[in-house]
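Checklist before submission:
- one chain only
- standard amino acids only
- sequence pasted in full

Submission:
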Amino acid sequence: MISAIKTPPTKYPVSLEDAKKHMNITLSWTDDDDIIQAHIKVATKKAEQFLRRRLITQTWYSYLDAWPSENYITLPFGQLQSVTGITYTTSANVATTSFTDASLTTTDNFDVDIKSDPGRIILEYGDSWPSETLWPMNPIQIEFVCGYGGAAATAAASVAAVPTMIKHAMRLIISDLYEIRGTEIEGMPIQKLKTVEALLTPYKLWLP
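Returned file contents:
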């Protein structure tokens, strides 16, 4: 399965103000704001890579080359909020959107399991995956929304829903990037690295 982002988040788990307060930087001093913002982006990416999650609400596409042998599809990144729909392309290069969630159309083919983590798409009883011969490259496209905060959450509410321990780990990463800008010291000090990993590990997504 490969994935591509459709709609990125509009906020980061740690704000510029939050990062500056953590580093005891006067909020009115703005000379390094661009640098700190860049560190926030890097810290977000590092946390997401370690956790195998996406933190703030965002929309993704995932692609499959074939329907699974099981009656379910496990989606990446955890904190699944919703599945917009499934599109598949046949060998005749014809795309169809008829295989969609019951909440969108009267076609009732699959349920969305948001209680499991990672979330799943599950065929309803008696239903089966489409039988047409598929296009040979990434023929199945699944559009879904994931991230903390729930489907109805605003961007600010999604930020607030990110666990405190994850945000604190990010603050440590940001402060480390800000304090050590040269190449004379490589990598985060061992003790701080252990602290960051200890903060993040309880929320790491363990894939099946």
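Reviewer check: The CA atoms of residues 67 and 131 lie 9 Å apart.
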